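can u pls check wat happens w/ adenosine-5'-diphosphate
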Amino acid sequence: MKGLIMDYPLTTNTILEYGNSVYHHKKIITHLPDGIRHEYSFGDMYKRCKKLANALTQKLGITNGDMVGTFAWNHGPHVELYYGISGIGAVCHTINIRLSANQIEYIINNSEDKVIFVDATLVPLLEKIAPLLETVEYYILINAADDFITTLPNTLHYEDLIRDQSEDFEWPELNENDASGLCYTSGTTGLPKGVLYSHRSTFLHATTIMSPNAGNFSNRDTVLLIVPQFHVMAWGFPYLCLLSGSNMVLPSSNLQPEAIIKILIEEKVNKANGVPTIWLGVYHALKMNPPKEKLALEEYLVGGSALTKSLIEGFEKDFGIKGVQAWGMTETSPLGTVSRLQPLHDCLSEDAKLTIRAKQGTAFPGVELRIVTDDGNLAPTDGKTMGELQIKGAWTITSYFKTNNNENFTKDGWFKTGDVSTIDQDGYMEIKDRTKDLIKSGGEWISSVALESALMAHPKIKEAAVIAIPDEKWVEKPLASIVLMNNEDVVSEEELIDFLSREFVKYQIPKDYVYMNEVPKTSVGKFDKKEIRKLFAEGKLT
Ligand code: ADP
């Protein structure tokens, strides 16, 4: 029997309309480069979304299902693009500015973006590949001076695009299962893979993340969105802030620790998100230069890489600020778990409580987790048995965009995360290792396999295996173990760095190299990364 309840669409328009009707007075504050501060209300933003919707449909010819790219930092216009593009039934494709030129070119051609909205400061990155982009009809410049010069074809300034548009626009009726956003995730080998979010998944993810046992956001909060809008929809924060009525503070490219601290103080920010590298930097900067008054910051939500016990402890002891660990993936919208203490933990020692908070945490309502061991069995929830973490839920991917590749999906409908984890008797998941051949440095992926192929293309290199090693600032960094063709050859680290810089961006290039006679191999002849990691841990790699 069908329930007798309205079929009310859970769309980004529903979020926008709600934010405008209940919280039109709430603020969106952007800190642009050069110390420029911009403030406006949710109500003002709403009106500009409607102008944008008119411009997209009437001036740029965008229709339902079209792809529209953004190549931009966190700021007001980028929030307008999130809502304006999805609101007319098009797909907001946020392009990660930190990927290599080759990957960006592939992503734009693969998604078939018709228009790209690009920050003036990021234009040089697109200029290099623009002649190779097959589908882009217009480039819209954001925050560009009137006399801005570019070689990009068919450019318009964002403000000129929307200036004369009407503030009246009737959102089309959208199906909540239609696509609203697209993000690419960099794969182990080969090409980046697209994850296509739906309106419904976006809505459900945002409402769940704002709830008290999860992110805990309300209309009393002022939230700094450090996670870039070009990376997994800024963890859904531009959506949840409108639903929860939290003021939104956007740092654009001001991501240095000192700049973040300045914004935290000036805007009296009490909640924030970000990867561990950012918070480690902020912590050290605060230690070096303790603030005169206690910061308003109460809590920072961390994900992307592991938030360590020592950072949680340091922040809390020294500054009374609480770190909350979350885990997720592009494929899971992204948030899947969060680690918060419960009353059942009240009796534990402080150290035992910290141990729990340093786990990746319990699943959000609407998400299920399981661990599958190497022999294909379900692991017991004993906090000890390791296996691959698998997930399913209302905002978990069912397949990648434009591929039939189903190797990451099980026959019974779960997504294989590539993380190796345990789950304890209270449902707290802990990541122990990773099966995917990737290194996560400062919150961004580096493909070890891509580095290995590039290194092995060097005429003097026979074999190259790249592993992740711990790094205090970046959490992980790549280490390349090299076998030379000829033992008498000399290849300097500078030469290798220079060689790799033709293909890789700076943060992806290993600064650490070790030379060996042979790379350890598994029984089937693959590089045995476990063994290399072991040698490194034992100090046997020099
Ligand atoms: P994001 O960087 O937004 O989390 P990605 O899809 O790029 O999304 O990366 C997802 C992967 O990052 C996870 O599969 C896991 O390996 C790692 N990861 C995410 N959050 C954590 C965390 N809290 N602790 C350890 N690793 C994490």
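The radius of gyration is 24 Å.
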